[in-house]
Amino acid sequence: xxxxxxxxxPPPYGGISVHIKRVMKKLLxxxxxxxxxxxxxxxxxxQNIQSIPLKKMLFSIFFNDxxxxxxxxxxxxLKSLLLLMKLFRNKVILTSHGDSxxxxxxxxxxxxxxxxxINLKSIDKIICVNxxxxxxxxxxxxxxxxxxxxxxxxxECQNDIENISNxxxxxxxxxxxxxxxxxxxxxxxxxDLYGLDLMIDxxxxxxxxxxxxxxxxxxxxxxSEKEKEYYQRLKKKVIDLDLMxxxxxxxxxxxEFYPILKSSHLFVRPTNNDGYGVSIAEAIYYxxxxxxxxxxxxxxxxxxxxxxxxxxxxxxxxxxxEHYNLEKxxxxxxxxPDNFKELYNIYESLSGNK
Length: 354
Known about the structure:
alpha/beta, 7-stranded parallel beta sheet, globular, Glyco_trans_1, transferase, Glyco_trans_4-like_N, Glycosyl transferase, group 1
């Protein structure tokens, strides 16, 4: 089977880019041919990872005779070209991560919205990571959907451990109870999307203790001026609250999150908007208790807190601290599904290789 994947390939590291990296690895393990057309800057010709302009990409697709074209790209212009892709007689899949697709439909003018709907109806399968997206699409007549979370089990590699700074490992080794979280500095509804501000507030309780927080900050180089200013204020707050020994803001450049997650006692995802939260599933896969906001469907076993409620978050963190062995045993009994098998079944059924 010959597959082309369109989206972000790390770096930068994030939920979608790590998902694409893992899909590519697992396809290669099965002996399939894979090309990634990276929306970012990274490319590696020997590994079939390309970063090329749209016109060259279309030319490449035309001459490569792919069985499957799988889009993860949230670029509105590229989505409008999905109908054109069908003219190449390839099977086309679109994965909708989070709310981006629904938001684009809601924000589009009438003509572009109609054009997007025609395009979406023409493709073979739309994979929605949450049921809300599938339900919304269904109300406007788009029925070619299925629901499948984006979580895929990590493909562990020694390089992933070595790529993490020794400063991080020293910080981790000094912790008696390690809380981990990750996310970029972004705003949603004028609030901190990934809840870094809430996590800093929660850590005030543990000043002088060996309870520590490592927050893996993604995409620092891509921050807007507003985001940079906000991030600097948060870093200053850590200093002003005398939390330097309790809080590490690790600016991720070229490393996956799972090695840090494996070393954690608790994972927290205090997002105010989300699609699912693959890091939560990954935490539970490693038998790490996980706390997350109640803004969307979460993986089985997640401890839920109220959205943007620091009191609720503090209470749940303290609960896990006091009942850690019980919570660890609880999540160890949960079987976390690896969704690659379901994705591969879709590939096979569409390509006729099943």
